[in-house]
Amino acid sequence: MAGTKEITQADVVGVGLNATDTIIRLPYFPTLDSKVPIISSHLRAGGQVATAMVACQRWGLHARYVGKVGDDWAADFQQEQLDADGVESHVRREPHCPSPQSYILVDAKSGERTVLWSRDPRAELHPDEVQREWVQSAKILLVDGHDATAAAQAARWAREVDMPVVADVDNLYPGAKALLELVTHMIGSTAFPHRITSEPDLLKALPQIHAQFKYHLTAATLGKNGVIAWDGVRFLQVPGFVVEVVDTTGAGDVFHGAFVYGMAKGFPLERNLEFSCAAAALSCMAIGARAGISTLPAIEHLIGCGERHEPRFTPEELEKAARLS
The whole model's pTM is what? Predict the structure, then answer.
């Protein structure tokens, strides 16, 4: 097990994806049967949970990452990046297997990206490759929709000791529904609530999910428009911050890292959502998932002085939806 260290008390633990990203910036997005010049190409460390744990570690928490890679150059690169940031890592390496990789096409005009990914099934983390002490010696667990069976085992151990379980989910990967039964705080992508409920109206879908799984919080990130959350009584909407976008890769990962950081620090919910939106916005100002992880003072400065995007929903829409939920 690469990167294994003596088990001590951690603030946060993440079980999920770690990947190597090749960021390819283009002057415009390609169409079929076209040729497009490359502005730049960059090799970067990424992955939903791994990036979130790096963010937490940089902000001063003791962060622990649990995941699986192959046994190639990318595995070495990923481990070196985790070690460089001081993340306590428990990364299993699968022999004769390539590590997860993504090729990310970024439109230089908007900063929006399209992800092309590859993950060998042998790189899936299994429940017997996770240890109870890795989970229960932390205070908050973050999971994503990948490696759902192993993540569910970690979530069961977390719930045994009343530990919050935060989920970063964007799709219904195999086993994801069983994992969702064990989560306490679900923060999905904009499209995820529709994928799980078939309800196109986000203000109806979030309360439906909340009631079904009995979450403490059910939320969806909205890209530049911030986040919308339902706590069982009211909607909380935090608009996104206006920044000069270079690359949106990893913005959601940083959002979730910021959210578990805020939980560890005891932030009130609305303050935590605002902090997470600001951290995610600033992350879009650099290339790759981790290069834009900003300092705490920079995040606080944006919260205090930054311009906001227009809210996606009006107060009247939120009030009406809350009455009907």
Answer: 0.94
